[in-house]
């Protein structure tokens, strides 16, 4: 197929055409099992009937209206998020990057309103990922995504992930926000420690700093809780959400409290498409399924089964040195003999009819549907093992 898109993506050699549940068919009719979930987006698999029905019903009523107005679907989704989280108010946008952009802007605006212009520094983590806008890529601690885009926004400091002492040394009265992913997704599926998150909360309170948790990838049931920070007994000031929030339909959200929200006074921030009725209607349908206790319990159970299977394959074939993650966000770290070849592993898996991801160059990532069935999980394992054997033959030391 001729490509008319800019060359910032290196597309796989297949073109998906249709999908259902955890199954995808390409334009040549070949079938794949999807354990990537559109990078943790398709939380309920592909073309879930409840989401289809919600979209079709809303499409016959109202697609878009100026943000001079609010709509029932947007208010209903915001109410669901408020009722089941720490939050009191929600800002809707279209993506994780936009949700984080809003979070960082709000943190600086809140500090400006209450403490003055000098309190503007953001502390984030090395190897963090928060999006591809200039602001979010600057807060993200990965120079490879920043190269060539200087000058970057100032007032951002990076510390090692899970380093309590480094955080304590970095935070000051000039800090306005500490930004953390409960699980660093893009850089290797690295869960935060409870000590790191709880210390961050304590230090933020001591220095009048907002704790911002990026839950774009970890939120909406991905870890077996509605939001991952629930595992750590930590209450944030701001949370960003996207990906699974719309079950495949683009939507993002920033959640915050009545203490912080007033700094987004009329005119301070906005989004033309944010909270549009189509996205919000699908989000409502997705929320009700994801937040059901049976779904969250299923995520925990299937995550344990998938991790156990990966450890068994790793032990048998010597390909994976470690398997880690929470719920159905799982990373398999390649053994030293296959260092930096995660991208090659993903390509080989696709040849065997399995869609998976990499997280950095050394971790194979799995983020399947939260509704992944036992049948589909069992069907995926021989495909994975076949991929492991081919990968070893082609890339073994």
UniProtKB/TrEMBL annotation:
Compartments it resides in: Cytoplasm
Binding site for N(2)-acetyl-L-ornithine: 132, 271
Top-rank lineage group of the source organism: Bacteria
Cofactor note: Binds 1 pyridoxal phosphate per subunit.
CDD domains hit by this protein: OAT_like
Pfam families cross-referenced by the UniProt entry: Aminotran_3
Annotated positions binding pyridoxal 5'-phosphate: 96-97, 129, 214-217, 272
PTM-bearing positions, type N6-(pyridoxal phosphate)lysine: 243
Catalytic activity, EC: 2.6.1.11
Pathway: Amino-acid biosynthesis; L-arginine biosynthesis; N(2)-acetyl-L-ornithine from L-glutamate: step 4/4
GO terms for MF: N2-acetyl-L-ornithine:2-oxoglutarate 5-aminotransferase activity; succinyldiaminopimelate transaminase activity
UniProt keyword annotation of Cell division present: no
Top EC class, one word: transferase
Protein keywords: Amino-acid biosynthesis, Aminotransferase, Arginine biosynthesis, Cytoplasm, Pyridoxal phosphate, Transferase
Keyword Amino-acid biosynthesis assigned: yes
Gene3D superfamilies assigned: Aspartate Aminotransferase, domain 1, Type I PLP-dependent aspartate aminotransferase-like (Major domain)
Cofactor(s) recorded in Swiss-Prot or TrEMBL: pyridoxal 5'-phosphate
Additional detail: May also have succinyldiaminopimelate aminotransferase activity, thus carrying out the corresponding step in lysine biosynthesis.
Family (UniProt): Belongs to the class-III pyridoxal-phosphate-dependent aminotransferase family. ArgD subfamily.
Subunit-level organization: Homodimer.
HAMAP family reported for this sequence: ArgD_aminotrans_3
Name of the protein in question: Acetylornithine aminotransferase
Species this protein is from: Vitreoscilla massiliensis
Gene that encodes it: argD
């Amino acid at each position: 197929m001729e490509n008319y898109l800019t060359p910032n993506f290196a597309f796989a050699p297949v073109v998906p055409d249709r999908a259902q549940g955890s199954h995808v068919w390409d334009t040549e009719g070949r079938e794949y099992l999807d354990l990537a979930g559109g990078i943790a987006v398709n939380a309920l698999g592909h073309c879930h009937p409840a989401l289809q029905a919600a979209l079709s019903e809303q499409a016959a009523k109202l697609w878009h209206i100026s943000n001079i107005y609010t709509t029932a679907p947007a208010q209903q989704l915001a109410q669901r998020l408020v009722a089941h989280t720490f939050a009191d108010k929600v800002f809707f946008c279209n993506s994780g990057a936009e949700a984080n952009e809003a979070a960082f802007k709000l943190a600086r605006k809140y500090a400006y309103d209450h403490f003055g212009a000098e309190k503007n520094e953001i502390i984030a983590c090395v190897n963090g990922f928060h999006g591809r806008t200039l602001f979010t890529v600057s807060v993200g601690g990965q120079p490879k995504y920043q190269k060539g885009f200087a000058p970057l926004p100032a007032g951002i400091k990076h510390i090692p992930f899970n380093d309590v002492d480094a955080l304590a040394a970095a935070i000051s009265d000039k800090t306005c926000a500490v930004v953390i992913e409960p699980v660093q997704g893009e850089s290797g599926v690295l869960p935060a420690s409870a000590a790191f998150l709880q210390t961050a909360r304590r230090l933020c309170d001591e220095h009048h700093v907002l704790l911002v948790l990026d839950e774009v990838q970890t939120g909406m049931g991905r870890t077996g809780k509605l939001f991952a920070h629930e595992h750590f007994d930590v209450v944030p000031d701001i949370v960003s959400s996207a990906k699974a929030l719309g079950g495949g339909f683009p939507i993002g959200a920033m959640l915050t409290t009545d203490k912080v929200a007033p700094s987004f006074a009329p005119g301070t921030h906005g989004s033309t498409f944010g909270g549009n009725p189509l996205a919000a209607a699908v989000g409502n349908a997705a929320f009700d399924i994801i937040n059901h206790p049976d779904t969250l319990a299923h995520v925990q159970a299937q995550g344990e089964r998938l991790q156990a299977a990966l450890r068994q394959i790793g032990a048998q074939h010597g390909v994976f040195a470690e398997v880690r993650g929470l719920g159905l966000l799982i990373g398999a770290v390649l053994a030293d003999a296959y260092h930096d070849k995660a991208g090659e592993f993903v390509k080989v898996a696709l040849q065997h009819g399995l869609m998976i991801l990499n997280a950095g160059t050394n971790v194979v990532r799995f983020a399947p549907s939260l509704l992944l069935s036992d049948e589909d999980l069992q069907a995926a394992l021989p495909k994975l093992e076949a991929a492991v054997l081919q990968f070893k033959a082609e890339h073994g030391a």
